[in-house]
Q: What sequence folds into this?
């Protein structure tokens, strides 16, 4: 049985038994927050429980490393939509220790892509000649504190984000759920007044 078959069979049973009813909510975050966090599998259930989130409490945006790498990319667009269209009043960037993006480099990723047939050297050259900097695009970070601080700064200083929105930066320990505060968005707002 394939993974997709298992998913579809489970889903049919889930719907037939009306197990979805316990998750009913609307599209507006009850706690008025948007969270940018990592796609790490250890955080799937741990993070919501560690910060007391229930279904419907927050908009959660997941990306590799919880990195906001471009001021006009998909992650920042999602933050802007969450604020203006869905009522989010605070932003949290939550990175984590032992992240796969730590020390990630393009060469390692591209070598693996070449090994499995996902890309050829000619494709790499074509992309680079088209102005795509794969070394920058596929680069991770050296320090999770610095990465969280940089993402918070990019969001905080975005020209489309209201200046009164607090943007917080945190790091979660993926084995225990313990949070470390890196940037207190309330203090940053007070300092800018």
A:
């Amino acid at each position: 049985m394939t993974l997709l078959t298992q998913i579809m069979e489970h889903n049919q049973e889930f719907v037939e038994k009306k197990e979805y009813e316990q998750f009913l909510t609307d599209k507006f975050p009850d706690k008025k927050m948007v969270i940018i966090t990592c796609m790490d599998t250890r955080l799937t259930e741990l993070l919501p429980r560690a910060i007391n989130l229930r279904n419907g409490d927050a908009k959660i945006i997941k990306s590799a490393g919880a990195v906001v790498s471009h001021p006009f990319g998909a992650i920042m667009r999602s933050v802007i939509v969450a604020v203006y269209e869905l009522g989010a009043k605070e932003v949290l960037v939550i990175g984590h220790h032992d992240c796969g993006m730590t020390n990630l480099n393009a060469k390692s990723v591209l070598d693996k892509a070449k090994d499995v047939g996902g890309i050829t050297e000619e494709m790499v050259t074509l992309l680079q000649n088209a102005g795509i900097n794969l070394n920058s695009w596929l680069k991770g970070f050296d320090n999770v504190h610095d990465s969280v601080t940089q993402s918070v700064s990019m969001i905080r200083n975005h020209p489309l984000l209201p200046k009164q929105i607090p943007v917080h930066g945190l790091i979660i320990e993926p084995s225990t759920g313990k949070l470390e505060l890196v940037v207190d968005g309330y203090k940053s707002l007070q300092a800018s007044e």
In short: The first strand starts at residue 33 and ends at 38. Strands lie at 33-38, 58-63, 90-96, 167-172, 179-183.
